[in-house]
């Protein structure tokens, strides 16, 4: 299309090396799927001039050209072939296929909703507009009232339910993000094509509407907050997240939430295109409210800088890294670029996908999308190269073939080149497009031609990030083109003539742009001029208040005067204002004093005596409104008390064997507590524990007894009066806590991962026909390790082989419980055939520090050894 710039290789074909050889070998590899005879319409949708790709990077050009050829092999339009095929299983017959392409495992005769929405942009670029609309409509039509407006997870190539993932209208694979991603995909295909069917087709419009209204209402019952939920009972009952390998059965997940937000925006846009301005405004407001709720509540936990990625049935937050339920925040452009946390989080995602890399190649194909969205271009290209380098390797599922055989890899390599590296953003209804170079330093130029946006055919070439050429090859009218460059440039030149640019921020990145009208058949060259200057217009990260530290009172300071406490902290770069808050609790909800100042110091006139307080400071850039909080929580201090503490109350002493557990509640002004012991009927007390900062103590030398106990509390003034109690037998019951609601020290399994509140298969925990909402699902050989609390008295669980394997002749396990290294329970051999009924485990654990739940394979391999610790819990001492 265009002559390469000086210094560029004369032909990419002359530089073919290892990368080219690798992709050429892949192209020659057979598709890992049943063979089919080509039908008369094999190339339907491919009649346009094919998109072409050239680059100074042979690795990129060869990989993308391979990807386009490989993706075309996945097209099934016009063919006739098996349905419900699965590897060596030939299926249940044959049928004529609808316009479609492979989206999912290459050994299954089906297309999957999750894969389809990620492949659809690549599909459009290959000319598969008919296939995209056909597949989207088929998914939309599969959602109905009986299925509570979930679309089916997978469809055969004839559009019928794929029976591997569908058993009945109440028992089929379904995951919340897919519901919303289909709505967003309709918007994106409308932007690419301008096809009015995406607005007017009654099947499609009903689906969009039900997805953002009734679906949300029907699936917002456990934590009613406007966020669509999963059940926490596995993928066949409805999963909140795409992450099927998580160790937590989340009810609400980050990828579902971000996808719901994006669906609201998509529905608003499509409604506006239909002329329904009221509905558009309503759903724009819903999207904004959802984002505010995430930023202010759902997505944040004090003391944890990572965003929350999911919430459990008790609204318990899970932070840390969750693969899809973490990365989708960036994929859906849900993160606020004004928040410094966002930029730290994006770097964290890049790092964590290396540290905790998913074993399936397709899961990593989201990473370039996420990073390109926020201008992490070098890192995004690194991930593209990583995927390219692994295309020839065997896939995690052997029958699927190589990584390159998995359809998502080829389709997304193309879309990430066009939408990612070339920054193409279509707007077919307005006969418009924007382009922005995301080229990394090692790619000198990228040349794309025959990109279709609606009825327009255009090409774009980027030379680095300072020169862009756009050709308008064909179209019904002039094409409005916005050309963007990263950074703040004083001028741009259009065909050599200086023009005044416009400055914008997109997801926090500073861009300099110009919008031009390009006639049909014309070409335009835009270059930067002058020196880029971040002081003129820079990334939003440059205006964030920068990291700083609290200084005084020091963390843990005591004896501060209650009248007049002075606070000091380091100044923050870019901050001109500070907000100080002082609270009685580490969560900073019970705020007792506030101050807004312009210097890094403030004084609070009066606080309660003998109390622990927490403090935090928010640095503010008033010009931009950006804020950075240095949280209190861990930064606590105590004011000097006016008197000794009152006597602790209540106090109790419970015996289990030779151990007595003493519990108490100290007065608020107390610093430490002391436990005394005397023989029953005696006042001859001896101190057995001093300096206690908790609320309990285990007397491990209580053999002989009975005893009575006295507990006192001490503060800076001195020791206060005590409370005396007689020991008593620990009750048979007490407050219970399920182990799945606690963090384990470690957890290993011989297959997949140990799961909380689910069997290792992902299904609900079931033993002998009884379903358990709580428990631990694992697979031999397995060890789950917990550190117990001093007030834990009994361990209780029901153990057995999960019903998923009840008919298996191979399933055989032994359950063991170890207390501080000693085996205290052994189930003996348990089998699925002949069936061993579940066993109840009930053990005294008062005084045990480490509890290990072990499952062995009974010495005959671990084939089918699905093992459940159903309803596993500990009972605690009353009052603890």
Written overview of the protein:
This protein is globular. The chain is built from 16 helices and 52 strands.
Would you kindly provide a brief summary of this structure?
The protein has 880 residues and is α+β, with helices and mostly antiparallel strands.
Helix content: 10-25%
Query: Radius of gyration, rounded?
Result: 32 Å
Proportion of residues in extended strands: 25-35%
Strands side by side in the biggest sheet: 1-13-14-15-21-17-18
Q: What's the count of strands?
A: 52
Distance between the termini: 75 Å
Count, helices: 16
Output the structural class: alpha+beta
Low-confidence stretches: 1-48
Q: Describe the sheet with the most strands.
A: 7 strands, antiparallel
| Broad shape | globular
What's the average pLDDT?
92
List keywords for this structure.
alpha+beta, 880 residues, seven-stranded antiparallel beta sheet, 23% helix, six-stranded mixed beta sheet, 16 helices
Please outline the helices and strands.
Blueprint lengths: L17 H11 L23 E4 L2 H16 L6 E3 L11 E3 L13 E3 H13 L3 H14 L11 E3 L9 E3 L2 E2 L3 H18 L3 H4 L1 H11 L1 H5 L33 E2 H21 L2 H22 L11 E2 L5 E2 L5 H8 L8 H16 L5 H4 L1 H8 L3 H13 L17 H15 L3 E3 L4 E5 L8 E9 L2 E8 L3 E8 L4 E8 L4 E4 L2 E3 L2 E5 L2 E10 L4 E7 L20 E3 L4 E4 L2 E7 L7 E7 L7 E7 L3 E6 L5 E10 L4 E5 L5 E4 L11 E6 L2 E6 L7 E8 L6 E7 L3 E4 L7 E8 L4 E8 L1 E2 L6 E3 L7 E3 L6 E2 L8 E3 L2 E3 L2 E5 L2 E6 L4 E10 L10 E8 L2 E5 L3 E2 L7 E6 L5 E7 L9 E11 L4
Parallel strand pairs: 12-16, 23-30, 31-38
Antiparallel strand pairs: 1-13, 2-3, 4-5, 6-7, 8-9, 9-10, 11-12, 13-14, 14-15, 15-21, 16-20, 17-18, 17-21, 19-20, 22-24, 24-27, 25-26, 25-28, 28-29, 28-30, 31-32, 32-35, 33-34, 33-36, 36-37, 39-52, 40-45, 41-44, 42-43, 44-52, 45-51, 46-50, 46-52, 47-48, 47-49, 47-51
Helix pairs in contact: 1-2, 2-16, 3-4, 3-5, 3-16, 4-5, 4-7, 5-7, 5-9, 7-9, 9-10, 9-11, 11-14, 14-15, 15-16
């Amino acid at each position: 299309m265009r002559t390469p710039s000086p210094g560029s290789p004369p032909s990419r074909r002359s530089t073919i090396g290892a990368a080219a050889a690798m992709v050429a070998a892949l192209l020659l590899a057979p598709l890992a799927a049943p063979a089919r005879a080509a039908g008369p319409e094999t190339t339907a949708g491919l009649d346009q001039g094919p998109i072409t790709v050239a680059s100074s990077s042979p690795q990129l050009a060869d990989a993308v050209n391979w990807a386009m050829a490989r993706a075309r092999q996945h097209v099934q339009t016009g063919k006739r072939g098996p349905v419900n095929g699965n590897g060596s299983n030939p299926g249940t017959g044959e049928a004529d296929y609808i316009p479609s392409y492979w989206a999912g495992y290459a050994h299954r005769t089906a297309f999957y909703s999750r894969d389809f929405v990620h492949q659809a942009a690549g599909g459009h670029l290959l000319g598969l507009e008919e296939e995209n609309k056909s597949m989207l409509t088929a998914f939309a039509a599969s959602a109905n009232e009986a299925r509570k407006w979930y679309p089916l997870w997978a469809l055969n190539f004839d559009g019928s339910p794929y029976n591997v993932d569908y058993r009945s209208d109440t028992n089929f694979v379904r995951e919340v993000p897919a519901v919303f991603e289909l709505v967003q995909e309709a918007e994106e295909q409308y932007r690419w094509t301008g096809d009015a069917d995406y607005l007017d087709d009654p099947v499609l419009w009903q689906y969009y509407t039900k997805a953002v209204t009734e679906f949300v209402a029907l699936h917002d019952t456990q934590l009613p907050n406007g966020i669509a939920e999963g059940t926490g009972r596995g993928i066949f009952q409805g999963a909140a997240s795409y992450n099927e390998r998580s160790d937590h059965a989340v009810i609400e997940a980050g990828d579902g939430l971000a996808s719901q937000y994006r669906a609201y925006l998509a529905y608003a846009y499509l409604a506006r295109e239909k002329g329904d301005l009221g509905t558009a405004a309503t759903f724009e407001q819903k999207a904004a409210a959802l984002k505010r709720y995430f930023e202010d509540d759902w997505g944040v936990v004090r003391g944890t800088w990572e965003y929350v990625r999911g919430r459990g049935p008790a609204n318990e937050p899970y932070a840390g890294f969750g693969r899809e339920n973490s990365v989708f925040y960036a994929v859906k452009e849900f993160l606020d670029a004004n928040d410094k946390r966002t930029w730290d989080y994006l770097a964290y995602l890049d790092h964590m996908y290396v540290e905790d890399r998913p074993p399936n190649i397709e899961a990593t194909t989201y990473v370039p999308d996420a990073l390109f969205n926020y201008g992490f271009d070098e890192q995004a290209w690194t991930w593209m190269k990583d995927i390219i380098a692994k295309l020839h390797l065997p896939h995690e599922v052997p029958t699927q073939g190589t990584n390159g055989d998995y359809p998502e890899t080829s389709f997304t390599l193309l879309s990430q080149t066009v939408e990612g590296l070339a920054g193409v953003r279509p707007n077919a209804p307005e006969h418009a497009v924007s382009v922005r170079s995301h080229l990394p330093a090692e790619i000198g130029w990228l040349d794309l031609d025959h990109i279709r946006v609606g009825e327009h055919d255009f090409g774009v070439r980027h030379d680095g990030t300072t020169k862009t050429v756009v050709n308008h090859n064909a179209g019904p009218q002039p094409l409005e083109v916005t050309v963007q460059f990263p950074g703040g440039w004083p001028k741009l030149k259009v065909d050599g003539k200086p023009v005044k640019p416009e400055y914008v921020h997109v997801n926090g990145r500073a861009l300099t742009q110009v919008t031009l009208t390009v006639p049909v058949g014309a070409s335009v060259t835009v270059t930067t001029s002058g020196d880029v200057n971040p002081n003129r217009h820079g990334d939003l990260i440059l205006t964030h208040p920068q990291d700083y530290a609290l200084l005084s009172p020091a963390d843990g300071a005591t004896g501060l005067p209650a009248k007049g406490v002075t606070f000091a902290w380091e100044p923050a770069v870019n901050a001109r204002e500070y907000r100080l808050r002082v609270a009685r609790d580490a969560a900073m909800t019970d705020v007792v004093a506030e101050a807004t100042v312009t210097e890094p110091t403030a004084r609070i006139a009066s606080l309660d005596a003998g109390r622990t307080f927490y403090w935090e400071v928010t640095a503010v850039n008033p010009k931009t409104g950006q804020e950075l909080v240095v949280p209190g929580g861990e930064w606590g201090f105590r004011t000097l008390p006016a008197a000794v503490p009152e006597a602790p109350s209540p106090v109790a002493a419970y015996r289990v064997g030779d151990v007595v557990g003493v519990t108490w509640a100290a007065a608020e002004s107390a610093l430490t507590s002391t436990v005394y012991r005397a023989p029953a009927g005696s006042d001859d007390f001896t101190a057995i524990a001093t300096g206690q900062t908790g609320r309990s103590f285990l007397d491990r030398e209580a053999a002989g007894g009975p005893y009575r106990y006295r507990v006192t509390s001490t503060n800076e003034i001195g020791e206060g009066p005590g409370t005396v109690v007689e020991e008593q037998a620990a009750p048979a019951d007490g407050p219970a806590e399920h182990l799945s609601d606690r963090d384990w020290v470690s957890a290993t399994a011989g297959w997949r991962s140990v799961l909380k509140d689910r069997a290792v298969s992902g299904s609900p925990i079931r033993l002998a026909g009884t379903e358990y909402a709580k428990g631990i699902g694992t697979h031999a050989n397995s060890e789950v390790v917990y550190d117990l609390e001093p007030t834990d008295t009994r361990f209780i669980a029901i153990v057995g082989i999960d019903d998923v394997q009840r008919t298996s002749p191979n399933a055989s396990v032994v359950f063991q419980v170890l207390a501080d290294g000693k085996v205290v329970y052994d189930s003996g051999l348990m089998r699925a055939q002949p069936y061993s009924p579940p066993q109840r485990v009930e053990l005294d654990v008062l005084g045990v520090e480490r509890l290990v739940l072990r499952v062995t394979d009974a010495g005959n391999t671990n084939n089918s050894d699905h093992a459940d610790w159903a309803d596993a819990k500990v009972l605690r001492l009353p009052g603890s």
